[in-house]
Amino acid sequence: MNFRQFAFKNVIRNARLYAGYFISSAFSVMIFFVYSMLAFHPELNLAESGGFGKGAQTGMQVAQYIIYVFTFFFILYSMSVFLKTRKKEFGVCIMQGMSNMQLKRLVFLENTIIGFASTVTGIAAGLILSKGMLMLGSSMLYLEHSLSFYFPTKALWFTFVAFMLLFLVISFFTATILRTSSLIDLLKASTKPKPEPKASVWLAILAAILLLIGYAIAFIVRGTLVMFALLPVVILVSIGTYFLFTQLSVYIIHKLKKNKKLYRRNTNMLTLSDLAYRMKDNARMFFLVAIISTVAFTAIGTLVGFKAMLTEGVAGSMPPMSYDSYADNKQEQKHLAYIETELKEENVNYDSFVIHNKDAELKDKYSFNAISVTDYNLISEDKIRVDAGSAVLMQFKMDDFGYNRGKKDWSKGQTLTLSSGSKLQLTDVPDMSKDVRQYITGNHVLVMSDSDFNALPKSKTDMDMHVFAMDDWQGTKAVAEKLNTQLNADSTNPHYRFQARALAMQEVNQGMGQILLTGLFVGIVFFVAAGSFLYFRLFSDLDSDIVQYRAISKLGLTEGELSKVVSTQIGLLFFVPIVVAIIHGAVALNTLQNLFSQISILKEIILVLGTFFVIQVVYFLFIRANYVKKLKKVL
Predict the structure, then answer these.
(1) Contact 519, 299 (CB under 8 A)
(2) pLDDT above 50 for 467
(3) What residues contact residue 479 under an 8 Å CB cut-off, 6+ apart?
(4) What is the DSSP track for 244-281?
(5) Which of 31, 119, 527, 628 could form a disulfide with 163 if both were Cys (CB 3.0 to 4.6 A apart)?
(6) Does residue 50 register a pLDDT over 60?
(7) Does residue 196 fall inside a structural domain?
(8) Is 42 exposed, middle or buried (0-12, 13-18, 19+ CB in 10 A)?
(9) Which residues does residue 167 pair with via DSSP β-bridges, in sequence order?
């Protein structure tokens, strides 16, 4: 058997430990390959979808590099942890006469083998799932036609070369920095007794204080203050999380052990005694998993929430379809007749009406967009009455970031003096309702009596908004595109403007769909990495757990009690960092809700966090079943 064969058999022999590392690496390769397949698709040209889509291809390429860089550090960390668990094996090799250089060569060959296998497996899995992924991508990008299947030669070679280079660099790096301890330390690495875990009371208290302060700030801040509070909250919560796992958790377990009644009940003595060691040993890993998972939850939740905000904002800020005609528009009647003809040919049921807008300029040169009370009552569910000499100022005070965009503060009873010299008294200054908002340009609208409105002088900024209202506006995309192409052929024409909510929504959905697709892929890689850390840590302790439970079973531990103890310990290993991450993510997304004060994203927050939690439960059940099965097989 030559050296290469020895390295290959070593990989096969350690298949159980390598499984998590191999699967997560192959999964990362698959995600990168599928994403590259989408990014390089010959039919995908999001740059034509408008403002939101113009940077889409560039954004997708940037996401490739994000996945690639994160995968590099993830694999490097996994390999460094894996090498630490093989100290005894390395000690045996050295005792048999292997030199340090040969040991480093062995590690290099093993990494290269597993890297090649992961790359090939990931690409193969990506090809198998490619049709479904293309359909998913088409759906998330709101494309009219599903992307057709093609053999992704460019994506395949790009992925293969990129990841083989990555694995070669990591293999060389880990082999170069591999340090060997003395032979006796290597052989006794797994048998050295662990010291009793201890925790500092002050650091445990500090952990709780830092987390509470960070959460309190996150819940209190509103509007633009959220941006200023972001960095301090991240620092406080990160430090608090680290001490939570290294100090506070150990301190709580120590206190539980002092509760004799609880400690001596059933198998709690075994569970709590071992749990303190596991929490201390795995503290850094728990911290890493919690932070990575929090980033994944928050990133995807933020993108989903931002998309919801934009889509709801578009739906609430413009009518289903409108033709805005300004002064001196000689083509108005011709265009309106064309719009009505096209809508009738497409069997679109609609109601049409006109909202007349004028410019009401004050003596101090400040001006309002003004409409008559008759037009206002046409678009509002809440009817109002405005007498001559009075007015109602509707204000959209708060924007999506929670601050006042108005230039002045106006109050009930205030008198406005128009540039013509006539006076109007404000009888009310209410917030603008959502049903009115879609028909108003700007953040203020002055509602005047019909006589006062008609008395306003004409200006070039006067505009008649011809509204075509329909319930099924989502189904008007095709006719809207035709109308938009015909009417807006001359985009520089200042006399009219055609708008359709279906087109604006399509632009937002495509642009945000690309960003959401990017975030989803990156978030999945982060979450899988976190799960692989847990798997790797659990199965690296399997040999020592077998020795421990074999000894305890001789004292009378039943299979049912064994399953209960193992389930509790694995459950805590899997759910403690994830629950912490979900709490962090919920707080972060609640802060996002404070930022987008006008729109509720509670449904999106519950959907994202709930989905991740369900996936974690399924993952836990699968790993637990396999772990208990392996334990029972050797006991």
Answers:
(1) yes
(2) yes
(3) 342, 343, 346, 348
(4) IIIIIHHHHHHHHHH-HHHHTSTTHHHHHHHHHHHHHH
(5) 119
(6) no
(7) no
(8) exposed
(9) none
The identity of residue 287, as a single letter, is: F
CA 527 to each of CA 23, 240, 334, 508: distance values in angstroms, whole numbers, following the listed order? 13, 21, 57, 27
Q: Is the domain of 328 the same as that of 305?
A: no
What is the rounded CA–CA span in Å between residue 621 and residue 343?
56
Query: Looking at 290-348, which runs of residues are DSSP E strands?
Result: 321-326
CA–CA distance, 586 with 12 (Å, rounded to integer): 42
Which two three-digit tokens encode residue 132? 């479904």
Residue with tokens 């064309």, as numbered in its chain: 338
Helix (H, G, I), strand (E, B), or coil: what is residue 444?
Answer: strand
Instruction: Give the number of residues written for the chain.
Output: 635
- Same structural domain for residues 120 and 164? yes
Give 60's pLDDT tier (boundaries 50, 70, 90): low
User: Does the residue 146 lie in any domain?
Assistant: yes
Cα(232)–Cα(218) distance, rounded to whole angstroms?
Answer: 10
C-alpha span between 423 and 358 (Å, rounded): 17
Neighbours of 481 (CB within 10 A): 15
In a domain, 582, yes or no: yes
Q: Tell me the CA distances in angstroms from 252 to 143, 189, 245, 289, 295, one per residue in order.
A: 53, 29, 11, 21, 27
Q: What is the pLDDT of residues 180-198, one digit of tens each?
A: 555 445 555 555 445 556 7
pLDDT higher than 50, residue 214:
yes
Look up residue 94 and give its two tokens. Answer: 């050295």
The pLDDT value given to residue 526: 73
Give me 434's structure tokens: 């959502």
Q: How far apart, in whole angstroms, are the C-alpha atoms of residue 430 and residue 426?
A: 11
pLDDT tier at 131, thresholds 50, 70, 90: confident
Per residue in 527-573, pLDDT tens? 777 777 777 777 767 777 777 777 777 777 677 777 777 788 788 88
Looking at the fold, whether 476 and 603 belong to one and the same domain comes out as no
pTM: 0.72
Residue whose C-alpha is closest to residue 183's, from 85, 106, 95, 84? 95
